[in-house]
Design brief:
Layout lengths: L1 H21 L4 H4 L2 H20 L4 H24 L1 H23 L6 H29 L10 H28 L4 H25 L4
Helix pairs in contact: 1-3, 1-8, 3-4, 4-5, 4-6, 5-6, 6-7, 7-8
Length: about 210
Amino acid sequence: MIVSLFYFVNIVGLFSLVLYFLIPVKNATKSLFPYILLVAFSSLVEIILINFLQLDSEKWSKIYQCIEFLVLLKVFDSNGGLKFRLVSVFFLFFFFISLLYFILLNDDFSTTKSDGFLSMITFIYIIFFSIYWFTFIFKKVDVPSLLNLSFFYFVSGLIIYNSGTLFLFLMLEEIENSELDIYQYWVVNLILVLVFRILLIVSIWKGRTK
């Protein structure tokens, strides 16, 4: 079951990029392209390098976290404008100072704990942007429903996915040290990834030009 779910999740990730190129999309949806590209690239890495070539998944996790944060920075900058840029600069500085700390002084922090802390920074950054974006949208009188906005599905997916995976990251070391089966918890992780990628596809479809 886990293997089948693993492949399905990554096929959905690749499909998001295919769909982006298959249908014409609005300019607002084009701002999501860096993240769509990251999702597709991550799917290939998971299938080829992690699954078949047995690349160290812990190293890839750290690399992915860094790339994802930079991609989020780009996407948020495209949709948040100058007013949100100072917040982004602050989080960028905090994220990479924390990363350097864990790389250079990691005696007291396992890879799992450092990944959890970096995920927490990313999650807080997403929450800050979500509050800013929702506030901006609610002030606009020409938006009858959030369900009509393609970006809404992307933001919602980010919140759902990161809130769930943050818990897994923070609890992973305790799970590993217990007698619980860790693979059952990674099923939860795969389901969260799948939910986010489905919402990403919905966001692309909603953002198509009519």
